Amino acid sequence: MNIRADKVDTEKAAANSTPWEMLRSEFESFLSGQGAGESLAGLQMVSTPMDALWDNETYGTWLAWETWANNIPIWGPVYQPSAGNRVTDAYIQVLNNIDVPDVADPAAKKRADALRGEIAKINDQIGNLQDQLGEAWMKFDAGQKGLPPNRRTSFDSWYAQHYGAKIAGLTTQMSGLMGDFASASNKAGGGYQSVGQAILNFNNPAFQMQETDQSGAQLSYRTWSLQPDLKSWIEEVKRGQASTLNLTITTHTKTESKTQWGASAKAGFLYGIFNFGGSGGGTHLNVDTNETDFRMTWAAKGFTAVRIAAGQWYSQQVLQTFKNGPWLPSGPFGSGAAQPYGQKGTFALQPVVIYVAYQPSVSATVDQKTYSEVKTTWQAGLEVGIGPFTFGGSTQGSKDDAKWDDANRSFTITSASEHPQVIAVLNNVMPGN
Fold first, then answer.
1. Model confidence at 125: pLDDT above 70
2. Same domain membership, residue 212 and residue 172
3. Which of 60, 160, 362, 369 fits 386 for a cystine, CB–CB 3.0-4.6 Å?
4. Is the peptide bond before 228 cis (omega within 30 degrees of 0)?
5. Closest Cα partner for 257 from 26, 427, 80, 432?
6. How far apart (Å, rounded) are the C-alpha atoms in residues 301 and 100?
7. For the residues 393-399, what does the mean pLDDT come to?
């Protein structure tokens, strides 16, 4: 079967967005009914199916922290991770560019500003080394796979030989500067005390932990909390003690939304709600929502909102206090070279909730063309993506189940996967509240 990506024109994109907007509207109503009471302005639907894998015993914590909590998504109605754009980097850039007003000692402020710049440079050097060593370790480790286990070099030994001394030296240097900075910021007084404490907390090793990534590298990361614990929640689902999911759209479902994506609200849903071939690639197909008996239901045995909270290195209060600056004239925000917040801002969004479902199913009555395409693709052993969920792929050993009703153009597909799937991500539209 020849799978190719669709070319999407403006008219087709508008039609493609309708079922997605219906699903989002229904999901927003579902969340409101649960009484969470939080703003849904930053809600992003998942259009490329993603598994929640941070229950992995080896690298699960790293995966949760660095690929979900610490990732600033691309602005828009669809969740898209943005490689290299980290919450930690954006947060400290904001702190480092605040031109703290109303200080008691201007000379101490000048000294604290200078030290803040030196600390930022060292932080950048450490960050760059850590980024480099991850790739370097993977390359080195791949090259020793053919060796007997007793002749392979461990990550700790390799790290000590190639990067340990450099990073340790920079860390020692920064530790000395931090003491001077604490003294200067306290002496400056006024707002500098809160900004200074936030910067000290950001660099405090007590608010960091060593975690293992997918390559086996072990480095220190600023801590996050994701609750409930994914593994414990899956066990609750299996015991029948968790909340369930049920979202139904029909030809009468509204498309209004509480999100605030502006002009990009519709443009983000470029592709049809069906995806054949897996992983967001392959062929996309829309569905005729005007069909009289059109109906789609997304359900799941388990549903939860995984709430993300930054560790003690983070201060939302400082961001709120200085949400309008003032900014250092020499910095990117003060000079106008960049914006701290907003659609094009350095710190546009921050993930706060990941909505996940366990063993989801989709039941649908659709137009004949869509029904035939879904059934043909399934019987060919290919994956079928429907909204945020993916099913099948029998060539890869999937145990997912499908039931077909040709006379009524209806089907039900159910996942048997042990991995929960992500439905949507809720972000704080920064600087948050």
1. yes
2. yes
3. 362
4. yes
5. 26
6. 51
7. 65
